[in-house]
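haha ok so turns out i had the wrong file open the whole time. this is the CORRECT one, sorry everyone. sequence first:
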Amino acid sequence: MTTLLEQLDRDMGDVVQKARRSLVQIQSGGRGSGAGTIWHSDGLIITNAHVVRDRSPRVCLPEGDTLTAKILAQDARLDVAALAVDATGLPTVDLGDSRVLQPGQWVMALGHPWGVSGAATGGVVIGTGAGLPDAPEQGREWIAVSLHLRPGHSGGPLVDAQGRLIGINTMMAGLEVGLAVPVHVVKDFLRRELGSGVLRPVAVR
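then structure:
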């Protein structure tokens, strides 16, 4: 008889596999590599601004193709950047709602820590919003999570238990405390910089 733990284990494995479809690796000017998330099937990718800065990034897609990306927009204060690659029909991530997150909810961070491709780590939400005590800048909205983000996680997806994007992995703020940019902040950034047409990605099933 299948135990509850075994079922949970399979479910979490399915969540990771689903989220990995939209996970990319980003290299920028020999500064190491970070991660990104495919937002739109026509080549729009979201990552951290500190992953790309003002260099010409290269993006390795989930199936292994490596393409040169164009930086469409970036905001150093929010630490968010939008990239474009010349590709269509890419698998996108489903979007969650970062505004309804509650402390204790299970989340998973994906990326390429220390060069381990497509690695996942899990934890729970500590808190959300502006004014979190461990946040590096007051007045900004964050998701604080009890997991260890490492070099290579930056720019990758933070997903909920259903595999929906709720944030962009950004930095450590203390021992076993990671910070992510909430997905509703990313939406506002895209709306401001690129227009509302990019806010409804169509997932490739």
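The first helix runs from residue 4 to 20.
again sry for the mixup
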